Amino acid sequence: MDTRCTVCALLASSLFVLEGAAVAQTPEPRAPDLRQYTFSELNPGRYEVVSREWGDMWRSAFSSPTFPTREQAVAALNNEAAARGADALLNVYCLDQGHWIMSSSTEPTILCYAIGIRVKPG
């Protein structure tokens, strides 16, 4: 009976490792390159607000997604905004959130947020 449990555990763990390797090998989808505007570039009547990325989620009261580089953070913003139907970003801000006081990591934790918009033609 014990050998049967051991074999099952080994089989399950090897499948888990193989599945992780398969996931690690699949390339991430490339983030769409959304145009970034500032408030001074567009009149308020020229766009429609689609979402406020990372700010209009209930999870933002507890935590927001951070990334090691600004490029990765902006790519995540682009993915999220495009998934919600935006074709541009307005007022992209990126901040280094520092690290947790009890953490030994010195890696930056970048948080970027923006307003996802749909630009009206004309």
Any overview of this molecule?
The protein has 122 residues and is α+β, with helices and mostly antiparallel strands. Helices cover 31% and strands 24% of the residues. The chain contains two helices and four strands, in the order αββαββ. The model is unreliable at 15-27 (pLDDT under 50). A four-stranded mixed β-sheet has the order 1-3-4-2, with helices on one face. It has a single domain (29-119), classed as Translation Initiation Factor IF3 (2-Layer Sandwich). 16% of the residues are buried.
Tell me briefly what this model is.
The protein has 122 residues and is an alpha+beta fold. It has a single domain, classed as Translation Initiation Factor IF3, CATH 3.30.110. The chain contains 2 helices and 4 strands; from the N terminus they run H-E-E-H-E-E.
Helix-strand layout with pairing:
Elements: H1 2-25, E1 35-37, E2 47-53, H2 70-83, E3 88-96, E4 110-119
Parallel strand pairs: 1-3
Antiparallel strand pairs: 2-4, 3-4
For the residues shown, what is the average pLDDT? 77
> Which class do the helix and strand fractions yield?
alpha+beta
- Which CATH class is shown? Alpha Beta
Distance between the termini: 74 Å
Q: What's the number of extended β-strand segments?
A: 4
Q: Which strand order do you get reading across the main beta sheet?
A: 1-3-4-2
The amount of helix comes to 25-40%
Instruction: Provide the number of structural domains.
Output: 1
Order of helices and strands: HEEHEE
Percent range for β-strand residues: 15-25%
Shape designation:
elongated
Task: Identify low-pLDDT runs.
Answer: 15-27
